[in-house]
Design a protein that fits this description.
By secondary structure, the chain is of the alpha+beta class. It folds into seven domains: 126 residues, no CATH class; 104 residues, 2-Layer Sandwich (Beta-Lactamase), CATH 3.30.450; 100 residues, Beta-Lactamase; 129 residues, Beta-Lactamase; 106 residues, Beta-Lactamase, CATH 3.30.450; 103 residues, Beta-Lactamase (2-Layer Sandwich), CATH 3.30.450; 157 residues, Histidine kinase-like ATPase, C-terminal domain (Heat Shock Protein 90, 2-Layer Sandwich). The protein has a six-stranded antiparallel beta sheet. A five-stranded antiparallel beta sheet has the order 2-1-5-4-3, with helices on both faces. Strands 7-6-10-9-8 form a five-stranded antiparallel beta sheet. Helix 2 packs antiparallel against helix 3, helix 21 crosses helix 23 and helix 24 runs antiparallel to helix 25. The longest helix is centred in the last third of the chain and has 59 residues. The protein is elongated. The structure holds adenosine-5'-diphosphate (ADP). Adenosine-5'-diphosphate binds next to helix 24 and helix 25.
Amino acid sequence: MEIAHKRTRRLPAVAAQFLLGITGLALITFVCFHLDFGVARTGFVFVILIALVSLLGSSTRASVVLSFLAAACLNYFFAPPLFEFRIDAQDDIERIAVFLTTSLVVSVLTSKLKRSENELRQNQSKLQKAQRIAHFGWWERDFTTKHVSLSDEVSRIFGVQPVDLPEWHGRWLDLIHPEDRARAAEAAAAALRPGGPRYDVEYRVVRPDGTPRVIHSQGDVTWDDSGRALRQFGVLHDITELKQTERELRASEARFRTLVDHASDAFFLYNEDATVLDVNRQACESLGYRRDELIGMTAFDYGPDLTPELLLRIRERLRAGKTVTYDGRHLRKDGTVFPVEVRIRPFWHEGQLLAVSLDRDITARKRAEDELRASEERFRTLVQFSFDVYWESDAQHRFTRQEFAEGLADAPAPGSEIGKTRWEVPYLQPDEEGWRKHRETLDAHLPFRDFELARPAPDGGKRYVSVSGLPVFDGAGRFIGYRGVGRHITERKRAEDELRASEERFRTVVHFSFEVYWETDTQHRFTRVEYAPGLVEAPVSGSEIGKRPWELRNFEADAEAWRKHREALNARLPFRDFEVARRTPDGGKRYVSVSGLPVFDESGDFVGYRGAGRDITERKKAEEALRRSEAYLAGAQKLSLSAAFAHNLKENLYWSEGLYRIWGFDPSRGMPSREACFQRVHPDDRDRVRQVVEEAVRQKQDYTIEYRIVLPDGTLKHLRSICHPSYSPAGELVEVVGTALDVTERKRAQEEHERLRQLEADLAHLNRLNVMGELTASLAHEILHPIATARNNARAGMRFLEVSPPNLAEVMEALACVVKDADRAKDIVGRVRDHIKKAPPRMELFDLNVAIDEVLVMVRNAIENHRVAVRTCLMEGEATVSGDRVQLQQVVLNLILNAMEAMSSVEEGARELSISTELSQPNGLLVAISDSGPGIDPEHLDRVFAPFYTTKTSGIGMGLSICRSIIDAHRGRLWAEANRPRGAIFQFTLPAGVEDS
Ligand code: ADP
């Protein structure tokens, strides 16, 4: 096609060339003829024309024809005889011959030049094309001119324009990927060092438009004689695609290798002699060789069953393009052998037969097959020995087959049950509900296991049968019936029942006696740990399995105890009550007492321990509490000077430490006898003590007794004993337990207290007598007054008797008045007597208002004598208080007398005494007695209550002190304040009396 195209293009070109030549020829001939140039000069001009035409055109033939035409023209127009094709002159012949030769040579040379120029151009364009296609270009650096030339392709690869070239050496590095820049620059510099490496480098380029390329550039340097670099010429190859392909190839190879290496089968690549060329990882792993070891080995090295004959046969089949499969064996490096399934495929590579073998380890399959066979064998044996009946039933659950074991006792008559369902043959169990469930299972075509039934036995008892069955389906999945077995379990049932009962008994015993049952193995590791149900804070079940007791983090015992315990375990000795503390998650502790027995098997070999543990936390706590309480008791006894003892009337059974101290016996000499003790009881108390004790023991009553003891050094002690006798169920005395308290000090204090109290009472009495003494005149007047009135009334009565007739009614009235007056006098005397009587204090409920009125009666005369105005302001209703009436009246009396005395010391001003009672908070009464006397110096407001404080010449200063102690004893308060505008107020409070019910 290319050639045809050329020819069509050349024809008009030749014609044009020829036409141009002819025209030129005609023109030159015409001009030269007229100018009469002659042969030589015109010939010269013709040569120039032909040379030009040849240069412009490409046809040699046209130039040759033109040359001959020009020669003809020279002959015809310029060589005489003119206008004839004849030449006369020898010179002209030579000239024309020279012209023709020159013209022909010029034509041929010119067209040859032209052609080679054309070819060159074509080649160049092809080269460029090739460069473009191959992404290949060249470059040159001239070190003398510093000029860099790049082929177009190089410019394209870098993505630069020819305008960039003048600065190329500066731009070049910038276009290189920053990471590769230093390396490329270094390679370029190294190549320019004399003796340096050849410039051959790969780097990445980032084109100005951002596209990356990978480039391989290499070049050689031309040196001058002095060793200076003149030029460097190099080629540059854009290997981006190549790299990409290489990468992909590598990745694909890696993927492929991974795939092959992860295959579960071993791959072998063989040549024809069964020499290994390559293997995968599985091949190495299964044979136990490294890859490099396997490559180069032959299949004979690890194929114990491969023979040269077999190899021959295999090779033949492979040559025929067939796949070879066989089961063989492989020999591992360690000498062991395993079965393989081998599958070999042929393929041709570079004219050579190669084979890929896929070898599958079929150990597991073989084993499974063997196991299946063995299991079948076992199953058959099992069925034969384990079941008493084999049965089949149809889709309606009717028996279609029943085979009873030979010699089975009580088997039904053969065939008697065929055609019946299970619930139609004489089975006794289960109940209706059980049957319903069983039929549901059957109708749902589900397998069932150990369905227990009982059938009546000829001896009247029961025979138990356990039946299991599997549904059977045909090839289309339709249910066709059941197949199953049955076992007579009467014996087993009985044994089971017995075992269960025994285990139940055992469990009950264990559960009530122990909290944990355990077993260990020969290494003392727990193999079983069972906690009693409901055990407080039992550890997580199974948490101890596999551990030794001393490895349990929450078990604690002291090091010495552990050591001894382990010694016992290692000696395989039984142990009892080994106590360990178990820490509970909440940080508390539980104590366990563990006992164990070694267990030996029939041949006498030790197999471990079995034992039980008891939670003794409560016992421990109780012990601890007891210990503590004993310590407290001892401490308390020491503090309270008390002590404890026990005796049984005949002898002492227990003496606490303190008791020795109290009785003055030496504890190191042991408990003293009862008699020795009695010797130390005060002689006056001995009989009483004996009596009280014997009486209380007889009456079976607790008793308290106080007595004195006299120690050998004469010290007298008062003791107080509280005792509790205890008795046996038969009513005999077991012991008397008691405490003895040394009350000597208390007795002494009591006596002292009593003495002081008496003194106080005496003083108060004295004070009363004193006061009464002072009141004598006044009281005498008070008593005289009713006596005088009685006398007047008696007189009046007498007068009414004297009249006739006597006015008896008036007499009666007069006598009644006499009686009233006498009573009044008696009252006054009685009260005075009460007041001066030395009587023990008496607590009673009374109205304080009334009591105050009585006091006022007693002092009425004195009040009048001192010209004192009395104002009473007593609260409404009863002012009930609880106390000793006489003592409280004594207080009021003392305060009134003090007030009157104080007021009598001042002459001016009204003498006013005011007495008030009112309720005071909370629940009390306030009594205030105020006067208009001189008052009390504010500094002495409290001192006046001190004993023996007086400002009076005849005073003894005990009045107010007694008053305060009386009020204090009544749980009240007495105090003095200044009255306004003058005088003093004495006030006291008393708790309101509440009647005791
Ligand atoms: P005596 O009356 O024997 O002095 P008291 O204990 O009754 O003893 O009184 C003590 C002192 O308190 C009196 O000497 C007196 O100085 C002072 N006193 C008591 N009552 C009053 C009162 N109403 N006004 C001023 N002084 C009083």
